[in-house]
Amino acid sequence: MANETREQWGSRAGFLMAAIGSAIGLGNIWRFPAVTYENGGGAFLLPYLIALLTAGIPLLILEYTIGHKFRKSPPAAFRKLAKPAQVIGWWQVTICFVVAAYYAVIIAWALRFVGFSVGQQWGDDANAFFFGDFLQAAEKPGMISSYVDGVLWPLIAVWVVVLAILALGIRNGIEKANMVFIPLLVLFFVVLVARAMTLDGAGKGLDTLFSPDWAALTNGSVWVAAYGQIFFSLSIGFGIMITYASYLRRRADLTGTALVAGFANSSFEILAGIGVFATLGFMATAQGVAVDEVAASGIGLAFVAFPTVISQMPMGALFGVLFFGSLVVAGLTSLISIVQVVVSAVQDRTGLGRLPAVLSVGGLLMVVSIALFPTDDGIYLLDAVDHFINQYGIALAALAVVVTISWALRKLPAFQEHANETSAVRVGTWWRICLGIITPLVLGWMMVDSLRAEFATNYEDYSTEFLLWAGWGVAAAALVIAVLLALVPWRDKKSEAPPAGSDVREEGKS
């Protein structure tokens, strides 16, 4: 299989849609508005834009260039740089495995809530319905004691759809799916935002979100939050963009595509912020309270606050279908990209064809996902794993990438040259400064800041025992497994074959 020509995107637009689809996920809708509100409102957009230009887009260009240059999955690409560096690639693969296992269940929740929106089954108490009737969550984290059928079957449906799309391949599966999903997502959200803007109190919500607190810019935590939001919203550190770029044609505009994808992602985040806070403004007005009393983020925003709003607004059922439908579509495009990282690594490492690789990876992921998350303990497991794999997996892996390439191997000039060979927008000294100085320093400070908060108090006041295995344990296991996978010898004859992603005809000319 290693000698087969690597799959390729059918068009630049197809790759761009897939890259945007990967970047636009659940965090854009439920994380960005809250982070903006908590960190200076309108003033936050300045550090956010600076973070995008000095870290987000430079890192996107780097990941695109790594994937395009070596035309391999993260472990094989980093192994081309230096054999010990393949640990980073395998680390990204294990992170993607963990994230995919729990990410799918959130999509399953959203899928059920599309139906719940029609009849507004949550009644007068959306909080009790979500945690009690729907999730049947235990009072506190412990051992799994029961399974929840209402979560199980939509979770199976999510996995069937994702694996079917992946089995069809890069061009016929992922590309075509994103060419449908992304326009559909934009349409859903434009209609949703337009509806939210007509609600009583919408202006009150937008004032709360965007009124600038310029004094916040002197607070270092605000700048850390801006960089954190960029890292977590652009799919950086997962190995996703390395994987997707490995399927590009030889002549590909890497920097131009990164700019479009980066700004498209940020534009959608701002659109999401407008829709969310216009809706919360309506909720606050209806209840006669301040917006900050109803502001929420994450799961609480999506599955408690928004159902409460839907019950109070005219045409609430349509609004609910659009909102939860948007979550499903955004979640699917991201989940597909996350699982593809694992599939690609397995293909490059074993020589398996796409279908066997998808079935083996997908089957194992599906088993893990179904075994742990549609349970009475699932919400607690998801919360702890998500927090620790994000803080001490994804961000730390991104730090390892930039430090290894810019400091240890000093390969930034070589990647700069490769990116400039085919790109319309050339990168120069500023790009190397961003990746060699600004990004590693900010990521390093984020780690220190996060660890300080972690040791000051237990996350969400969970027991130390629970956090040791469900939080720290999972994050550490991802790294340990990555190291073990890197120690397994490669079959050099296959691994050193002509680049699997190259066009054979063009490869002969280069």
Describe the structure concisely for a colleague.
This protein has 510 residues and is an all-alpha fold. It is 75% helix and 0% strand.
Give an overview of the whole structure.
The protein is an all-alpha fold and 510 residues long. It has helices at residues 12-23, 26-30, 32-38, 45-70, 74-81, 86-119, 126-134, 149-167, 170-197, 202-210, 220-233, 240-245, 254-287, 298-312, 316-350, 354-372, 378-408, 412-422, 429-456, 464-487, 492-495, 504-509. The chain is globular and about 60 Å long. Mean pLDDT is 91; it is low at 493-510.
Defining traits:
disordered C terminus, mainly alpha, 0% strand, 510 residues, 22 helices
Shape: globular
Oligomer: single chain
Instruction: For the record, give the distance between the C-alpha atoms at the N and C termini, rounded to a whole number.
Output: 23 Å
Query: Which H/E pattern describes the elements?
Result: HHHHHHHHHHHHHHHHHHHHHH
Instruction: Work out the helicity level.
Output: over 70%
Residue fraction in strands: under 5%
Low-pLDDT stretches: 493-510
Could you describe the largest sheet, including whether it forms a barrel?
none
Structural class by secondary-structure content: mainly alpha
Average residue pLDDT: 91
Q: Compute the number of strand runs.
A: 0
Cα radius of gyration in angstroms? 22 Å
Number of helices: 22
